[in-house]
Design brief:
The complex is a heterodimer. Chain A is an alpha/beta fold. Chain A is built from eleven helices and ten strands. In chain A, β1 and β2 form a beta hairpin. The chains are: A alpha/beta, B mainly alpha.
Chain lengths: ~250, ~375
């Protein structure tokens, strides 16, 4: 299997501060890569650089062997990379249904947006996504009336509706109850049957629920990479996390 | 399934919309039989301003781009029409009996400038009425919306454009008529017969109806949904694959074209055009109409423009300080009814809300897709 996403020697600089220093990352088909690391390690910046939000100073990002380094966000999105942001980045003034409708895979041209009709197929797809994210009952409510956890799901549902071949999730369980977190983990696992996934997470229980391969970022570089067991027993990782609760509960 | 969703054409026949708009249209259609010519031309002017306000609502109310330059687009269309009417004055009606308009003679021009001469022909003039403001808006929009400039800075740029163009038009007296603008233009003819005040009124009424219908149709489509989402958060939608700049440039240019044609219809009615309509004060008035009427309601800005125009007319008879009254009105609306006057009406009068989904069961189980 070839890699879906390939990040090579990536450097991102914010006015003199080196946020990412020579990061390498390979993501293969239908796998879940979990990125962990302390605050400020560069986790979100890595996703930002992939989707064209942060400018890459040097290095390359390849998507299916096509270079996408520093391309415009909408072009990268159209190629098949979906992104969920750290705080639910959804349209509060629109209904849940409309949020998903906006995200739905298809053409994004002005003419097609003017002439588009809500076909049975489209409706079916939207309801299907809403069912998978347990949002069917809220379909016609404005997003502003939903709980924080539900808003997170709305954004996950939007990414699903995009049907990207690679899904980037930035802390999908932030602000969720234990039950919601567990359910999110199950959703992510079901997504991974047909998509590659990169998840940024803090919650170690959640990481153990979903993780196949873990990448640890520290101060803008990859510190370690491996399975849950390998990471837990890695001495460098233990040092960085020394005395932190996350690694204790994980041990 | 009768359940409808904002962002798509209604699957059911929009009875309510048709009824409300037909009643509205008929009310205006019988006005010429009830009013004298003077009052009729006043109402015509208010309707033209109303359709100008609707064009601004598309970019401000729906897309969130606050523009003070809509007076400029309006006036550019107006000048195109004014050149046409001025150049078609019969030679005997011209003060100097020649081809050249009087203000050009006064300023020492000896022949018609090449860029004004073609406007003597109706099809070219009509095209220019739409194309000049649209092209101007496209060029500005292309640079603004592809740059990192956003929000209030775009608004400041529109203010600067308005000021700069006012100064430019005033300074180019030989070509633009300077501060006076282009006055004493001929009447609009239909194959040699001058069109009556009633005729102009119906032209304007049909145009306003067209602008409203087009805007409604656009904003009820998926395109309208995208405009609303650009308004709420333009960064997010790029990550869904939409080229935000392209959408903004499109609606900005379309809106300018609509404003320009409104200006083109304004001149046969008003019989002159001047840099007054280019100035920031007029651009601000358009913004006030939209703010008071209710952003994103289409019909609100139209009615507010007519209402405030009427207020201005009444107050002008008593005092010169009509702007004070309008200013106080604006303060009251912004402070107490921030969503505009339309929000005071029951929901069913908001034409842009007619296709909002009702909170009903979203799906019959058997309809489940694949």
């Amino acid at each position: 299997m070839g890699s879906v996403l390939s990040v090579r020697d990536l450097n991102v600089v914010f006015s003199g501060f080196k946020a990412l220093k020579g990061v390498n990352l390979e993501v293969y088909e239908n796998e879940i890569v979990t990125i962990i690391g302390p605050n400020g390690a560069g986790k979100s910046t890595l996703l930002d650089a992939i989707v064209g939000k942060s400018i890459v100073a040097s290095g390359h990002v390849f998507y299916h062997d096509k270079e996408i380094t520093n391309k415009k966000p909408h072009i990268i999105a159209r190629m098949g990379i979906g992104r969920k942001f750290q705080n639910p980045n959804v349209y509060n003034q629109l209904t849940v249904f409309e949020n998903i409708l906006l995200a739905l895979k298809g053409t994004h041209s002005i003419t097609s947006s003017i002439t588009a009709k809500l076909t049975k197929t489209k409706k079916g797809k939207i309801y299907d996504v809403l069912e998978r994210t347990a949002l069917l009952d809220q379909a016609f409510e404005p997003v502003s009336s939903l709980s924080h956890g539900q808003k997170q799901w709305v954004e996950i549902a939007m990414v699903l509706a995009q049907d990207p071949s690679i899904v980037l999730l930035d802390e999908p369980t932030a602000g969720m109850t234990a039950d919601e977190t567990y359910m999110t983990g199950e959703i992510i696992k079901s997504i991974s049957q047909a998509h590659s996934i990169v998840v940024i997470e803090h919650d170690m229980d959640f990481v153990k629920q979903i993780a196949e391969r873990i990448v640890v970022l520290h101060q803008g570089s990859v510190l370690a990479e491996g399975s849950v067991q390998e990471i837990q027993s890695n001495s460098d990782v233990i040092e960085v996390y020394l005395g932190r609760e996350t690694i204790n509960t994980a041990a | 399934m009768t359940n409808t969703v904002l962002g798509y054409k209604q699957s059911t026949f929009p009875t309510q919309l048709i009824v409300i708009s037909t009643i509205g249209f008929l009310m205006f259609a019988i006005l010429p039989f009830a009013l004298g010519d003077f009052q009729l031309s006043l109402v015509s002017k208010l309707i033209i301003f109303g359709s100008l306000a609707v064009s601004l609502d598309l970019v401000w109310g729906f897309t969130g781009i606050l523009s003070f330059a809509h007076g400029v687009f309006f006036t550019l269309g107006g000048y195109a029409a004014a050149y046409y009417l001025k150049l078609n004055l019969s030679a005997s009606a011209n003060n100097y009996g020649g081809e050249l308009p009087d203000f050009m003679v006064w300023n020492g021009l000896e022949s018609l400038p090449w860029f004004i001469a073609p406007l003597k022909h109706f099809p070219i003039a009509l095209f220019a009425t739409v194309a000049v403001p649209a092209l101007f808006a496209y060029i500005i929009g292309y640079f603004i919306f592809h740059s990192k400039v956003s929000g209030v800075y775009i608004t400041i740029i529109t203010l600067a454009i308005s000021s700069a163009l006012t100064t430019f038009f005033v300074s180019q007296q030989a070509y633009t008529g300077g501060t006076n603008g282009i006055t004493d233009v001929s009447r609009l003819n239909f194959f040699g017969t001058p069109i009556s005040a009633t005729g102009i009124y119906f032209l304007i009424l049909i145009y306003a109806t067209f602008v409203l219908a087009l805007s409604w149709w656009l904003t009820q489509s998926n395109f309208g949904l995208i405009l609303r989402s650009i308004n709420e958060n333009e960064q997010r939608i790029a990550y869904l694959g939409y080229d935000v700049a392209q959408y903004k440039i499109f609606i900005w240019t379309l809106s300018a074209a609509l404003a320009g044609l409104a200006g083109g219809l304004f001149v046969p009615l008003n019989r002159f055009i001047s840099p007054v309509y280019l100035a920031v004060a007029f651009g601000t008035q358009v913004v006030i109409w939209v703010a008071i009427g209710g952003r994103g309601t289409l019909i609100g800005p139209l009615l507010a423009a007519m209402l405030l125009g009427q207020v201005q007319n009444s107050v002008e008879k008593v005092t010169q300080d009509w702007q004070l009254i309008v200013g106080i009105l604006l303060l009251v609306v912004v402070l107490f009814i921030p969503s505009g006057l339309m929000s005071l009406l029951p929901e069913r009068f908001n034409l842009t809300n007619l296709s909002r989904p009702k909170p009903i069961e979203p799906r019959i189980p058997s309809e489940k897709g694949s």
